[in-house]
Amino acid sequence: MQEHFDLDLERAILSSCIMSEDAYSSIAGDIEPKDFSLKAHQDIFKAIIACANSGEPISISFLKKHKKLDEQILNEVIATPSMIDLAAYVNELREKSIKRQLLSFAHLLPTRINENRAVSEISDEISKEIFNLTNRINTNDIKGIELVLEELIEEFKKQKTLENKTVIGLDTGFEDLNHMTKGFKDGELIIIAARPGMGKTTLCLNFIDQVLKQDQGVVMFSLEMPATQIMQRLLSAKTSIPLQKILTADLNDDEWERIGDACNLYSKKKLFIYDSGYATITDVRAILRRLKAQEESIKLCVIDYIGLMMSNSNFNDRHLQVSEISRGLKLLARELNMPIIALSQLNRSLEQRANKRPMMSDLRESGAIEQDADTILFVYRDEVYREQEEKERENKAKAEGKEYKSTFIRNPMQENAEILVGKNRNGPVGTIEVLFLKEKSCFTDKPKFESTEFQG
Known about the structure:
Layout: H1 7-19, H2 21-27, H3 39-53, H4 60-66, H5 71-78, H6 86-113, H7 119-134, H8 145-162, H9 175-181, E1 189-194, H10 200-213, E2 217-222, H11 227-239, H12 243-248, H13 253-267, E3 271-274, H14 281-294, E4 298-304, H15 318-336, E5 340-345, H16 367-372, E6 375-380, H17 382-399, E7 414-424, E8 429-437, E9 442-445, E10 454-455
Parallel strand pairs: 1-5, 1-6, 2-3, 2-4, 4-5
Antiparallel strand pairs: 6-7, 7-8, 8-9, 8-10
């Protein structure tokens, strides 16, 4: 029979709270003393809560002031190493606690059922108790109308000071995109979606570079591309040296000097790249919390891409797994009060349409992405499809023994591209025309004489 307690886990959580007041603050309200199976551990956690509530340091001397503690158990706790991803372990502690309470409740069921009462009354009472056990609410998240109105007035004041500003979030680097979105704002989940080869990672690197220019920090989870390749693309865009030359290190003296200057520039920036190729929402949460605690300048998180993230759940259905990941990212953006950009693939079926511009229904694997996202951007380059179509016509003509000469000539330097704003929770949707510079592997605004139409 499985034991629904883990004393090592309990000691590690208590040790983390004692070693770092920030650790306790991050999980305050998530667990209660009764979640610990050992009474001595419950007493230590009660003392920790008492210290925090009275504004005192969470230290041994203050803990003993509030509660008579078992010295041996306290020493075992102090000797236990603290943990990095405290939230994940706290969740495990709660799971074990709820299972223990459910088992205790199950032992009482025969007595309840044998009571001389109506079945409907007994079943309703049992349902309520099970619900209360498994759906504990953090009352800190419940706000009275007075507090809501105070926060609203503060928001009005903030917006008043920003009313003449085009950008109130992070500058995207694209004038028309800033106009439509007002920048990437704190707490937002932004999805960038496209078919392979359209340049969604490249567009993301544009956003990253723009944020770094503002001397803000960025954390990137690159699950598909190694960190060195990410830097090669950033250097190409920064130095205007063709990416292919950088990839092969085929550079002259002047180009090596420009690369050196760019590397020196980036060395002073706060860019963190996680490129293990494997990450769950728990991993992302733990790493991002830790880095943000260490570096206050971190203002943006990028995940490339959501389809490669693994689920913490036991769901077999990938749609449900992606729903869990999507919701987790949105909650994390709100918790850390920063924008999170996540890349996503699109369904292959769109390539069967005459007009291959993406739509919301093309998002792969989950409608939850559409629901959770504040902003959804699609990347589209028409010339990619035009070239494919011309090759198909040429191959078909050859198969039929006919000659076919295409008049389509693809520009080797640049081509027109589109950023389609498919969802914008607080603004208009529409199409933004940009340029894709092939050699530099980056996007840029079109010259000013090119007009862009917005659709409300």
